[in-house]
Amino acid sequence: MPTMMKVYAIIVKELKEYMLKPGAISWGLIFPLVFSLAFIARFGDIDHLVPGLVSISALFGTTSFVSSSIIFERRLRTFERLLLSPVSYGEIIVAKILVGMIFGLMVSTVTLLLVLHFMTYPLWSVSVTTLNLLLSNLTFAAMGVYISLAIFNPINVMTWLNIIRLPMMFTSGAIASLTLFPRWFLPIGLVTPMTYSVDGLRYGILYYYDVVPPLASALTMIFMTLLFTLLSIRSLRRLY
Q1: For residue 34, how far is the Cα from the chain centroid?
Q2: Three-state DSSP class for 181?
Q3: Which residues contact 19 (CB under 8 A, 6 or more apart)?
Q4: Which has the closest alpha carbon to 68: 168, 182, 180, 155?
Q5: pLDDT digit string (tens) for 86-142?
Q6: Predicted model pTM
Q7: Measured in Å, how far apart are the chain's first and last C-alpha atoms?
């Protein structure tokens, strides 16, 4: 069977089995939407917050979905059954990342359509925004897969995810611009994957960026996706 057919079969299986799991619904869908609505109700004029809110939705949508599926498969030992089928480690990881990206795209697109209704200015570029939305979800999905496989005890995966995700909301410029922080804080922002998502989306939606130019943001997200993919394959080999 061709590689793409194998990947597609895994994606279909994942969507059917894990779309409505509690972790994916609560943290992946409800939390980002409620979070966005809270800012809309509090501030009203949210133009400068839109890129951050969409990026937060992408982060939680992708990582919650992939972590839910991997946690269940590791705890129920169904990963072994998947590995016994004629698929490679790389095909499994790519499928996990793509299905996480699909779910994240659904959540972040809904968030984007919601917040656009409350913006003062129109969206600057649909194509640039779409590209950065795709890259953001791809990067976060790859990161989520890696973290879910790197943690030895699957019960602790969601705890570690929140330890990583929640600070990222404040170290990436999603809530407050990094230019408002002291200069020594900027390196922390630059090692945060979400920073590149926020600045890329900010450029596509509002036609300006804070600290990272749009091309650099896109290239960095591509690099991070490849890095997390390779690390995930290595972690899967180590576990099985």
Answers
A1: 17
A2: coil
A3: 103
A4: 155
A5: 888 999 999 999 999 999 998 899 889 888 888 888 899 999 999 999 999 999 999
A6: 0.91
A7: 23
